[in-house]
Design brief:
The complex is a heterodimer of chains A (572) and B (211). Chain A has 572 residues and is an all-alpha fold. Chain A has helices at residues 3-24, 54-61, 65-94, 98-112, 115-126, 131-140, 157-178, 184-193, 198-205, 207-227, 230-235, 243-252, 256-296, 303-339, 357-363, 367-398, 403-408, 411-414, 417-430, 437-462, 466-473, 478-489, 491-507, 510-515, 523-529, 536-564, and strands at residues 30-31, 37-38. Chain A folds into two domains: 1-38 and 356-572, MetI-like (MetI-like fold), CATH 1.10.3720.10; 66-355, MetI-like fold (Orthogonal Bundle), CATH 1.10.3720.10. Chain B has 211 residues and is an alpha/beta fold. Chain B has helices at residues 42-50, 95-102, 111-124, 140-153, 170-187, 198-204; strands at residues 5-14, 17-26, 31-35, 57-65, 68-69, 80-83, 158-162, 191-195, 208-210. The chains are: A mainly alpha (572), B alpha/beta (211).
């Protein structure tokens, strides 16, 4: 292991450990019988033995806490399950067809849209007075919106859908990146010569080989979905909200008891997220066993049943994921309409009157949030790129192993954000670090780093080593090799890594809100603060503002390499 | 005292398996050819001479260039040029910038002098006026010629050729082979060719060592 790798381990590991400990420790605080307060963080006087810390008593007796926890657990399991099923069926049904490749290209821009904006878009599509309902009403001649509850319903359908809409494209892109190493076309061809139909053949031969390659990202989806705050605030149930939302409410409350309660809730959140992971692992085993049984039955001969099964799988695969992508993009279009709409009477499909008041209102307050968002994104991404390059370059020169580090880098994605970040906030308070842009950027770094590092790592792995040998035999030093050969030849990956990092940072809500203590507003925190306003126009405007920069980054990632290398065909 | 490239009792091993053992020397302007089927350690031998030997290999013996022992000299200071199977023109640089990449920097030399040097070099390989071109727009034969010229401009004291013609089609192969060996003879540097093609070895016109 090189010194740079060690340094990175420490830089990521120490705050993760300190943050998690500090998030959980206040839960174990006691009031002494004489009324004094015994905080385990301040002095280690002995606790009254055998007593349950009061914060846990309060937590357990909080109304609806079991429902909150259960909602988080279910969201943590159903979101990845729905994402995985839709992606697998899509890949199985489309395989090498051109239509499938075109649809897959829609996934990348959807990935660039922030979670919150996608949640707003979904709400605007599927609410009782939403665009979908208006379309049906126009066709069916309804006068009044249907009476159903979608957003904030206790059954959390909207929450899971909203999360899956964003996570499925992520899983799809991860799966597409891993797919070439599974040798899919040959596996399918072999299974077909043995009598399996194409979709079934893919599911039986490629799916099991692909799964281990996308497993770690799926774990990140599980933890994220079970502990998300922004999407839960917008789409999740309100009576009671998810555990993560309540945790944040308690954490930002001024009373010390609430802070301890938040800490106990953080422990519960950690338990819930780990439980979701544990249950997922259990299902992995059950499904693996079921697979073994199905495969052992051999080639099915009952042509009618096989054909029907194949047809259903193919139909679902062809529609589920494409529909969800189209839903988000239509929702963004609906947000555009809402942002320039005045009155919008039901069941009109377009706003009845038009107005620019939402934009003019937003434009008068957007400068500071926009500046903050860009500054935080640039700081955290620059740090992530520099550190990644230093580490990778040191590894490349010493030929040391890298596998352990890339797994370790997933850690910030496998500990619930809300737990780790609230601990970092406690640390900042204790060390009298005021909430600042720099502190927020530091928090963003942890979530940007894994993606930046993994992108650049694959760039390092893919670069033909002969380029560097050649440069050396022409007399170039290691420094010259890096700047004049490595960096230009990897420019596309560098741009991708930077834009991916910027997109992630620009969309992050929780680290910004908690570490900035509300004093470092960004476009994202402002947009989410408007949830309660309930004004379709205002929300639409801010959701679009929030999506604008990530979308720009996404387009730059595609265009910049083409612009820079327009005269060098070999680079594209 | 030898002014060429000399290998003294070189032996290469992977673990306990011996790949090859040889001693030889090449004088300036000569080409020595090492022939053998794949897996006999030809490319490993070149990596050893150039200074890129991987951790998996153990090497014994000494390499001398113009009488100086090279074993402890880092690759970029050995002044040993390498010609690969592919032309490997840097795709991000123009043809002229590719040639300049290896051009030895001389004290007090003006940029204009360097430019005119590049111009002459391009004329020598029949590509006058190609300096600003994208290397991807050159034909395979043109790319090979630029690669060879880039190598010579770096003023190597010895040149290693790793099956340099095997990725060319038959007709081009003949032409590039003749061009390369003629140029090497004129440049008067010792050259070390590894190949599995007897025609390459014969065209090189020097000693042939079969592994």
């Amino acid at each position: 292991m090189t010194w740079a790798t060690r340094f990175l381990f420490l830089l990521l590991g120490a705050p993760l450990l300190v943050g998690s400990v500090l998030a959980l420790a206040p839960a174990f605080a006691y009031y002494m019988p004489d009324g004094s307060f015994n905080d385990p963080l301040n002095h280690s006087s002995n606790h009254p033995a055998g007593l349950i810390p009061p914060a846990f008593v309060t937590l357990v007796s909080t109304p609806g806490i079991a429902t909150s926890a259960m909602t988080s657990l279910l969201a943590g399991l159903l979101t990845p399950a729905l994402s995985l099923v839709s992606v697998y069926l899509f890949l199985a049904a489309t395989q090498t067809r051109r239509a499938g490749k075109l649809i897959a290209q829609l996934a990348a821009p959807v990935l660039a849209i922030p979670h919150a904006a996608a949640a707003f878009a979904l709400a605007l599509m599927l609410a009782p007075t939403g665009v979908a309902s208006r379309l049906v009403a126009t066709l069916a001649g309804w006068e009044l919106p249907p009476d159903y509850l979608f957003i904030n319903h206790p059954n959390s359908v909207a929450l899971v859908l909203g999360l899956a809409l964003k996570e499925a494209p992520f899983v799809l892109l991860v799966a597409l990146a891993a797919l070439p190493s599974t040798d899919a076309p040959r596996r399918v061809a072999l299974a077909r010569t043995l009598g399996y139909r194409p979709t079934t053949a893919w599911l039986l031969t490629v799916a099991p080989a692909l799964y281990p390659l996308i497993r770690l990202p799926l774990f990140a989806v599980i933890v994220f979905a079970s502990s998300t705050v922004d999407v839960a605030l917008i789409l999740g149930p309100s009576l009671p909200p998810t555990l993560s939302v309540r945790l944040v409410e308690w954490f930002v409350a001024p009373e010390i008891e609430q802070r301890q309660l938040a800490s106990a809730a953080a422990l519960l959140q950690l338990f819930i997220s780990l439980s979701a992971l544990g249950i997922w692992l259990l299902f992995e085993r059950l499904i693996a066993r079921a697979y073994a049984t199905i495969v052992a039955r051999g080639t099915p001969r009952e042509a009618y049943r096989v054909a029907r099964f194949e047809a259903v799988l193919t139909a679902v695969g062809n529609t589920l994921l494409p529909t969800s992508l189209v839903l988000v993009l239509m929702g963004i279009a609906a947000l555009c309409l809402a942002s320039v709409g005045g009155q919008w009477r039901y069941p009109a499909i377009l706003p009845t009157t038009w107005s620019l008041q939402h934009w003019s209102a937003a434009l008068s307050t957007w400068q500071t949030p926009l500046f903050n968002a860009i500054a935080i994104a640039l700081l955290s991404v620059t740090a992530a790129i520099v550190l990644s390059l230093v580490t990778l370059e040191a590894q490349a020169r010493s030929r040391a192993g890298t596998a352990s580090l890339s797994t370790f880098l997933y850690l910030p994605l496998l500990i619930p954000q809300v737990v780790f970040i609230s601990g970092i906030a406690v640390f900042a308070e204790r060390t009298r670090l005021p909430p600042s842009l720099l502190l927020v950027a530091g928090g963003h770094f942890f979530f940007v780093m894994p993606y930046v590092y993994l992108t650049l790592q694959s760039g390092y792995a893919r670069l033909d080593s002969r380029w560097l040998l050649l440069a050396k035999t022409l007399g170039a030093s290691s420094t010259v090799c890096f700047w004049r050969v490595r960096v230009p030849l990897m420019s596309t990956q560098l741009i991708t890594a930077a834009m991916l990092g910027l997109t992630i940072s620009l969309s992050l809500y929780l680290p910004t809100q908690i570490l900035g203590a509300g004093r470092v507003p960004t476009i994202t925190t402002e947009a989410i603060a408007l949830v309660s306003s309930g004004s379709r126009g205002t929300i639409g405007t801010w959701a679009l503002l929030q999506s604008a920069l990530p979308t720009l980054c996404f387009m730059l990632a595609l265009l910049l390499p083409r612009l820079i290398w327009s005269k060098r065909k070999g680079m594209l | 005292m030898n002014t060429g490239l000399e290998l003294q009792n070189v032996s290469l091993r992977v673990g306990s398996r011996q790949l090859l053992a040889l001693s030889c020397s090449v004088a300036p302007g000569e080409v020595i050819t090492v022939m053998g089927a794949s897996g006999t350690g030809k490319s490993t031998l070149l990596a050893f001479i150039a200074g890129f030997l991987g951790d998996a290999f153990t090497a014994e013996g000494k390499v001398f260039l113009a009488g100086k022992e090279l074993n402890t000299v880092p690759a970029e200071q050995r002044r040993i040029g390498l010609l690969f199977q592919d032309a490997l023109l840097f795709p991000h640089l123009s043809v002229a910038a590719n040639l300049k990449f290896g051009l030895v920097r001389k004290v007090g030399e003006s940029p204009e002098a360097r430019d005119s040097l590049i111009k002459q070099a391009l004329e020598k390989i029949g590509l006058a006026g190609f300096g600003d071109r994208d290397p991807a727009s050159l034909s395979g034969g043109q790319q090979s010629r630029v690669a060879l010229m880039r190598l010579l401009l770096s003023e190597p004291h010895a040149i290693l050729l790793d099956e340099p013609f095997s990725n060319l089609d038959m007709q081009l192969r003949e032409e590039i082979r003749t061009f390369t060996f003629d140029t090497l003879r004129t440049a008067n540097v010792p050259a070390f060719l590894v190949t599995h093609d007897l025609a390459d070895a014969q065209a090189a016109g020097g000693e042939i060592i079969a592994l």
